[in-house]
Every structure is written in C-alpha cells, then in structure tokens.
Amino acid sequence: MKETLNFQTETSELLNLMIHSIYTHKEIFLRELISNASDAIDKLKYLYIEDNSLLEGDSEFYIDVFLDREAGTIRIVDNGIGMDHDDLLNHLGTVAKSGSKAFMRAMEEAEKVNNIDVIGQFGVGFYSAFMIADRITVATRKAGTDRGYLWESTGESTFTVDEVEKKGRGTEITLHLREDEDGENREYLQEYKVRELVKKYSDYVRYPIRLEVEKKEEETTVKEMETLNSMVPIWKKNRTEVTEEEYKDFYTSKYHDWEEPLKHIHFKVEGNIEYTALLYIPSKAPMDFYTREFEKGLQLYTKNVFIMDKCKELLPDHFRFIRGLVDSSDFSLNISREILQQDRQLQVIAKNLAKKIQRELEGMLKTDRETYEKFWKEFGVNIKAGIYESYGVNKENLKNLLIFPSTMEEGMVTLKEYVDRMPEEQKDIYYLAGEDIESLKRMPQLEAIKDKGFEVLLLNERVDEFAVKTLDSYEEKQFKSITEVNLDLETEEEKKELEDAKEANRDLLEEIKDSLGERITDVRLTNRLKSSAVCLVSGENGISFEMEKAFKDMPGGNPAMKAERILEINPGHDLFKALKNVHEAGEEVGDYADILYNQALLVEGFALEDPIEFSNKITKLLIKAAK
Length: 627
Prior knowledge:
With 627 residues, the protein is an alpha+beta fold. It has four domains: 3-227, Heat Shock Protein 90; 234-370, Ribosomal Protein S5, domain 2, CATH 3.30.230; 413-481, 3-Layer(aba) Sandwich (Rossmann fold), CATH 3.40.50; 492-626, Up-down Bundle (Four Helix Bundle (Hemerythrin (Met), subunit A)). It contains 21 helices and 23 strands. The strands form five sheets. The protein has a nine-stranded mixed sheet. Strand 4 and strand 5 (148-153) form a beta hairpin. The longest helix is centred in the middle third of the chain and has 24 residues, at 344-367. The radius of gyration is 33 Å and the shape is elongated.
C-alpha cells in the first residue's frame, strides 16, 4: 500500500533551501551518493562475516552509474546492504543527525562566501541531489529480506513509500534532472563529466565505480561497463608513491571537506603489532565540532576491510580534531565495541598515535610557524583543555605545544621562548587573563610590570587560566597572574615608601573598607599602578576573576566559587589626593568608595551591582564639584 508522508519540518526547510540554492558546488552530489553507496557495501561486508546468507550468492561488489540523456536521468546503483521500510523513514524522511538548523545557517553562509563545502558535515549528503534534480526515486531492498520499497519525492513537503518487487539487494537512485537556464545540469549527463568527477572525488573508493558507456565495434554500437576509479587504497601505497595532490584529493573526497588539510601523517609500524595509519589535520573545524553531536574517532580497517567508522578509543580528547584511518591485520573482523575497550593492542596503537601526532605538531611549530598558528586558531583550545583534563595527566606531553599572545610582540610566544628571554631578575612567568586581547593590553595592572620590562602572557580564552593553573610551573618558573594580591615586584625602598603611606592613611583606608562591607576582603595602597587610580586584585583563595566568570557560566554555576576582591588604590594619583582632602575635611567617603569600587569592577569586566545607584552617585558628586 502506497504511503504519503510528510518530511520532518527541519528537513523540509533544508530541502527548500537546497532546491532554491545558488550554491556553486552542485557537482558534489555525485560524490555524496557514491560515498553513501560505498558505506552501504561496507556495512554489508561487515555483517556477512556472521551471516553469509546476506550475500545472496552475489559477492562481486560494485557501484554503477547509468546516464540517459534522452530521459534526462542519472541512475546510481549499488549492491550494498539496502534499506527496509524503517530505514527509508529514518534516512530519507528526516535528517539523521540533529543540527539541521545549524546546517542551514552554514549553507547560507557558504553561499555568501562561495568557498566552503558544508554538505556532508551534518548527515545530509543524500539531499544534495535535490540541487540538480526535481524528482528522485529510490528503489531498494535490504539484504536478507524479500520485500523491496520505492521511495519518491520532488523535494517539496512530502514523499511516498510503496512496496515493489526488486530482484537484487541494494539501492538504485534515479535523479530526474531539473531544467536550468545555463544548461549546467545537462552537463552531468556527459560521460566525460562523470569521469572527471569520479577521478576528482572518488578515485580511492574501494569498490569499482562503473559507468555504462557506448563503444563502436565495427558497424554496431555496444554498451559496456567501464571502471572509472583506481580502487587502490592510498594508505596501502608507499609514501614515496603518493603525491601531495593525491593525499589532498583523498582527504577532500573521503571526509567531505572542501578545504585542503593543513597536514597529513602517513606511516607504517611493523613488529609485535603491525598497522598503517593515515591521519589528517584539517584546516578548519567542522561545523558541529563544538556541539554534543560531534563524534571523534578514526576509521578502523583490518586486512583492508572496513570494520568501524568512529573508533573513539584511538584518539584522546585533546586530539579529537584528527581525521583519518588505521588499518591493522591484528584485529578480528567481528571485533565489537566492548572488546575494543579492553583490547591491549588497540591501547598500544592509540598510545603510539598520540605520540606521533604530538611529534608532528611539535615539528610544525618549529619549522612552519605560520601553519602552526593557523592550526592553533582552530584547535588550540583542545590542546589547552587537554592540559587540565584528567587531573593534568597529559600536561607534560602537551606543554610545549602551547602558544599565547603577549605584551612583547604582535605574534604568539611559546613557553620556551618566554622563559629564554626572561630578564635575569625576573622570577616568575606573568600572565593576565580576560576576554579580549586589546582590552587586556590596556589593563591598569600592566603598568608597573611593563615599566620593569617584564613580558606578560595574555590569556583570552576561558580554558587558558585552568591550563596554566594545572601546569603550575614551566622550567621551574611559577605561573603568576598579575591580578593576584602578592606580586612582590617592589624594591626594598619601594616597599618602605608604600608601608609609610599605608600607615599615614590607615584611618582613610579603614573607612573605605568599612563602607564597602562584605563586597571586598581588603583595601590597600599599591605600587602596581602608575597612571590609573584604582584596580581590583584577587585574594589568596586560588580563584581568579576569570575563573569566577567561567564557574558562573557553567550549567548550574556555583555562586560560592567567587574570587576574593581586594581594592588597590594608587597613592600617587590625584584622585587619591582629592579623597584624602575629603576625609581630612571630615566628610564621609562612602559615595567616593562606592564609585571607586564600581569603576574597578567595570575595568575587570564585571557587571555593576546597581547601575542606577552608581549613576546617581556620580551625578551627585559632579554637581557638588561644579558648585
């Protein structure tokens, strides 16, 4: 019985976007459909290990393409696993992954910049065919079943599913090409164009991609199937036999990325455990990289047979951006997730891969700084998170990969470079944490430390301070925030002058502290300020201002995780001298203290506790000063 069903709402919106898209990379529809066909064969090969009957006497796998210029159709046929009724609804009636709205936003952006391929990153590859087709039919039968189905849609709001007779297992997709003004769609019906696209995107697919071609034999024309792809897995070749262009083509084809990778890592290990690995560092983070839907992992092959798509056990979280595959003859074809988690060989391979990736990144940092900084911009947050995750177990391995902006130069600096150029009298590694580099460079706490010629690391991401706190030190130099209470930068003479000033103004400082109450821990004079009047520094409870903000932003943030606030005042500033005059005249300093405190809050990026009251007090004092 024929069913007419509605697309999921977001899927319908997505299809509408594609149908009316001006997206210029329409040609990738063939890559996506061939990739899906290859995946379907992979799944069947995996399943028939335990159930040989699924082959149904047909063990020669293929992906065939048929062109009908007269009818204006393209057919892609495979003899993979096929689909049943539920599979059709799950795979072709809805976007299998969540995040379709994110995809649509990405698609719209791709049209604006005209240089990013977002198809495939959100599990919507099949739908790319609607960019060139106004009707698609899918005839399919799942291996091991006797019932076939026909799915059909024009890409509008509905699709139909009906039972049909289908002899062989697998899937046959027919695209009815839409008429377009420039005739671009008709070009996909030309043999040369299909050859070009298969070579460009799918040459390394492990199954023959065959095109039905016409050839003349004497006075007759015959049709035959011509294999278009090489089918030799690139990772099985010697590195000297593979060109840079081939490595890049394999990556863009297999991982649906229009951007070339920053780097590839291809190596073979022999010995007690033998395996080959081909890994890639992408140029850009995938659209869903920082979402819960993103899955890390490498493809796993054994004896050139695909057995798992996302083997997460092969990558630590801090290297989860790596794409690629591992092929080892030491694994069983029917290995399961549960076995993998306990498999000693896999653990050894994973450990070796992490070391190899680390060495490659260290080498890139030393020999190709420009490329490394591009990598860092995309994935540096992962490395920094890896420092403090699992109680810092990986911090020694990752610390030399860290780079930060600083007050010394426009570029980035490694910890090694920082320590090597420290003045002899400098004891600690100084840093300043905040949300914006330009704002950090203007922070008042920098004034005295810059006067001494000391470099300060500028930490502008929330994970940064957690990372340096976990490291604690580098080459026996302690990390110290310049917003901490005890920097110990003064000479003995400066300390003596400051102590005398504190004693001379003890009553004033006590009155300011009393007026601010529990909002602060202490009020004190400081030498760390030069041109600025006031600043806040954190106390000795181990929580900084940026860490307080991070804890607050976490789900179910703990309000008790607050930094101790100490108000520091510059005794040489005209504002403090005016405050002394007010105090000596017997006036209350409460309003002045409140304004100073709120001023310091604003500089630190905190919201004012009562903006209206703050505004009223400033107005009141301005009127008083003008009289």
